[in-house]
Amino acid sequence: MYPALELDLLEALDLSIRQPVLYFQLRIQPCICINKLSQAVSQCIDFMPQWACRYDESSHAWLPLTSYTIIDEVDDFDFSSWDITKHPQLQIQIQHAQGYDDLRIGCSHVLCDGNGAMQLLYLLCHFYNKDSITVQNERNLSSLSFIKTKKPIHKKPKAVPIKLNIIDNEYT
How many Cβ atoms sit within 10 Å of the Cβ of residue 133? Predict the structure, then answer.
């Protein structure tokens, strides 16, 4: 079990109404190697296991799945059955065409924000290309500037002293 952080809970507030997900669409020329992509996804999951977990609303944590599918080869993109409370937090659909492949990558917005999704994309590319990189899995809210700030973002205006002289019920 991997507990959720404070900002994760904001995106998870209304899961019964909407699925908070981010999507990337890429065109790969020439066609992508499914085996290399599968290995890259496995390495990403080794690095950050939450990608292969489902989000549990009652415990506010990611629970490991015993079996799952992340990569699907499809005729048409369709994420309508994807539910982050039942499926992995990462979904990749591949649509094959003549001389190229279109990929649509879906990431749980509960697990990552837009910057985190971009970092995942970079990580997938590094692992796909077998680049040697040094990475560290760190989900840290202290790097966010508005959390570091100890002062409130909106300051209460200071009171301006006003002296009223009342003479015969008139103000001067």
Answer: 9
